[in-house]
Fold each of these.
Amino acid sequence: MDEFDVIVRLMRPLVTSAEALGLADDAALLSARPGHQLAVTKDMLQADVHFRANDPAEAIAQKALRVNLSDLAAMGAEPYGYFLALGLPDGVSEGWLQSFCQGLAADQQAYGIALMGGDTTRTTGPLSLSITALGWVPEGQALTRRGARVGDHLYVSGTLGDGALGLRDLASPAHARYLRPEPRLKLGVALRGVASAAMDISDGLVQDAGHFATASDVRLVIEAERVPLSDAVRHAIVQERFSLADALTGGDDYELLFTAPANTCLPANELITCIGRVEAGEGVQVVDATGAAMVLARAGYRHHF
Amino acid sequence: MDEFDVIVRLMRPLVTSAEALGLADDAALLSARPGHQLAVTKDMLQADVHFRANDPAEAIAQKALRVNLSDLAAMGAEPYGYFLALGLPDGVSEGWLQSFCQGLAADQQAYGIALMGGDTTRTTGPLSLSITALGWVPEGQALTRRGARVGDHLYVSGTLGDGALGLRDLASPAHARYLRPEPRLKLGVALRGVASAAMDISDGLVQDAGHFATASDVRLVIEAERVPLSDAVRHAIVQERFSLADALTGGDDYELLFTAPANTCLPANELITCIGRVEAGEGVQVVDATGAAMVLARAGYRHHF
């Protein structure tokens, strides 16, 4: 198999839009959508760092796509298309690549997007991939991390900790959440004009909330006992295989964290939980049920070199 | 050093446009340029495959950027901005990263572009990077590979073979061309409305001409003795350290290959050489000075897995 086999036989069927020029040109050509801005995000995922090299190929493809779609959700953007760069180790099989592309095809259907371009190369290291995802957002309506105001409430979607538990425990129901996070795209769109600020949680609630607080120049207070947990995470905590602190600081959640004024009418179509408030000051304070500050050994996941 | 040090101290100074939201958000937000389309290209480069791991850090950064800018040049697009995904091996030094970012900063100045977003991660393998470059092209004026017509002349910019010689021979003046290709951006813009089709040559003239012929559904005839060669390449051929076939099939040229009708007035501001013609049929025929077909052992570079 060479790169042109991969492009022609496996990648080209993923092209469903004219912008890609059939993957036969040097670049894709996108026309503007009147009255909209284009949200662009780019993530890189490395085997043995962001996923296990022996995770199912479909899941690796879908996770790479979905972590980017989660960024679009956080901006309130509707997904439009994506570019894929794939660094393939020697000896990768055609079957593996077929499964990888089946994973992409399924998510293209699910999220209404198409492959628009990219690059297929060899690497002497482990599998390495990068996706650039594009989405449209009506002019001036994008959500950013900057608008949280003192007095706003702090909300989170879904449940937290499942990604971290699922990484550790392949037998847990949470493992499916680790493999295939669910980007909160509908919620992101519904929060336009509602949320004062938003971001997605990828590296742990507390650490990401710190970036959020800095961007908005406020302090975020998180009431730990209000943080929503799945049955799988509750069960693991009871069994002492996992802790509340793990749920507050573990990565791979891909839920939305957002703020809204206290009297706002929130969209009813998604699981949303109020987990705290915005105060004057800086940084993040996590408090327990008594209101006392909790001390956490670490705030979240970060790459060290 | 962790990823946030790298982002705040080294990457953020490369942001000079509002679209990036200071690298502090989940995605960049781009407004449309009226009357223009957005050309988007994404390449991936792996250490030990696309460059030597011990090439100068500035040159690695610039090559990664320039191979993408070369794709924009081939579309007739003006560069606008780029996204960088960086997979850093353990133990990468801050000095190396500073040099890498200095290389980017110098090219940002040279090409009038800015960093708009991206991702910094760890890898357990060698250095891995991906750039997504964006450029503007007036609506309907993009150059593609599809418009070559029977009777058109076939042209190439610059000289060929320097990248391949420079990879092999670090002492050759061609080594600088291997390290830092020169994207033909001004020529690309000048060819709008002039060239009938265009592409950039990255994997070897003959192989890339094959893709070009397929896209335009024509045959390309290349007259080998008309292919422009630098003094360094001529010298290496005389010394039998390199061959004309190497120049016709070696990668890393990043020159433009384009076609134009025979009576077209070509832009005078760049080195352009007519190297052949477009005929009815398919594929590529390389002919020698007598008009006899040349047989080449290989057509160009392709990744095998």
Amino acid sequence: MIAPGFTGGMLDRADPLRQDPEALAAAMGDWRARLLVLDNFEPELDGEGRLVWTTLADAPEGSDLLLLGLDNGKPCFAALTPGMQPPEGRPMRMFGLLDRFAPGEAATYAGARSLLDWHTRHRFCANCGAGSEINRAGWGRKCPRCHAEHFPRVEPVVIMIAEHDGRALLGRQPAWPPGRYSALAGFLELGESIEEAVAREIKEEAGVEVTDVRYIASQPWPFPSSLMIACIGMAKDDTLTIDKHELEDAIWVSREEVRAVLRGEPGQFLPPPPYAIAFTLLTEWANSQVG
Amino acid sequence: MIAPGFTGGMLDRADPLRQDPEALAAAMGDWRARLLVLDNFEPELDGEGRLVWTTLADAPEGSDLLLLGLDNGKPCFAALTPGMQPPEGRPMRMFGLLDRFAPGEAATYAGARSLLDWHTRHRFCANCGAGSEINRAGWGRKCPRCHAEHFPRVEPVVIMIAEHDGRALLGRQPAWPPGRYSALAGFLELGESIEEAVAREIKEEAGVEVTDVRYIASQPWPFPSSLMIACIGMAKDDTLTIDKHELEDAIWVSREEVRAVLRGEPGQFLPPPPYAIAFTLLTEWANSQVG
């Protein structure tokens, strides 16, 4: 399988360091410590597609340092700066950079971006409303009033194709670039398994019932903090009832057509970009035996 | 595969109803509407292991009604009551009930319990600190001041065994009943895939490196709101370095021994309970071909 985008991170998350204030202070004082260079939430890449780092001294006045992990023992941080605003809308400039990342670098960036984003949207305690404080080297917040602990949020999303008679169901959202079709997707809800969420979403969006859901792959998706869980379900029939609030259109496509489109040949649709797990999912499906 | 505990829910989640205040009001006025009977967070079961329901009129004064879904068209609600307190500690009485649930009933209860728990811990806007209000028929909260929307939190947890030379790695947490050993587990973090989280957790807790992680099954776990993702990874060797902050002990057990223990025969450990996905995972592993 092609490794899904944003996977393959090389940092040691160094969990014990997060819980040891003295060790963390020593890491901040380590001369090898380095700070991820960001313009608000956007990274800087060098000519080889590697993230650019600087020294901790370059953190803006009043920043909090979040421990991203250790790179061969070197402590790596990101700065949560006082004026940081959570990004809004589709990060188009960011998407343009994704093809340029060297292996593993997108994963480091994804973790940093999601963590920073979470802090900017969670400055207050959801339990009592007081301002909360950074905890665990950035991997949590704590309320000084009610003492509730809060942890960075990871949102599981199921992303899937239904299969019927050797064809895959793809959908199109209105916000996507013209011509693009991809896997259906939706947030997994409280009280359901991955397999149940897959079946519910395909039924809701396209009116198709699936069984025998199988897991294919997963990836972190840092816009802002999803865990994408890619699956395939077997459709009972191919009649579509499209929910127009969710999808602009949906189509059934053959393995042959998907293979051609993934090779870059013209077809009735444009595929998802390579860093999206939908690309991994479609590739796996197109190359699998007819089931 | 045995269906994991808390799966198999029969309610239609009725997403369109959540977004349509008029339709929701009509559902609340429907004479077939019913309210889940709860004593704070504990359910009541009838002699057949079915949840007990009552009429909406029995909701305590000042309650908010959360839409659980439709049961063959009948609107089903749970009441978020003014004095409701989030449960603390291990719900031992609850665990005692789990074997008694009729098929599908534990899933309905799991969704309701997690949703109520989330509301009790998230009465304030994490973005600005103002008191937030129930939204989307209970499947969200909205801030009247900054207009941020908040959605119920689902926390992905990886739960896994490492396999080496036909044996499985099991661990023991100090809080568990005497003699119990089960799969290792931990929260998936921002910026990692399921496979990466599995490898990290086994390395952190037991010092064992795994590759070739494969997905087995998932379940919702409503204490308070986890998505359990069960996997198996292939260990490079069997030398253990146990993190005593996480595990009291860890052992390698053969397929034969796991099979015997799951059949209820005496062995060197007691297995996890049947409603836990670790039970599903161990059963799958024990019955699989030697790989």
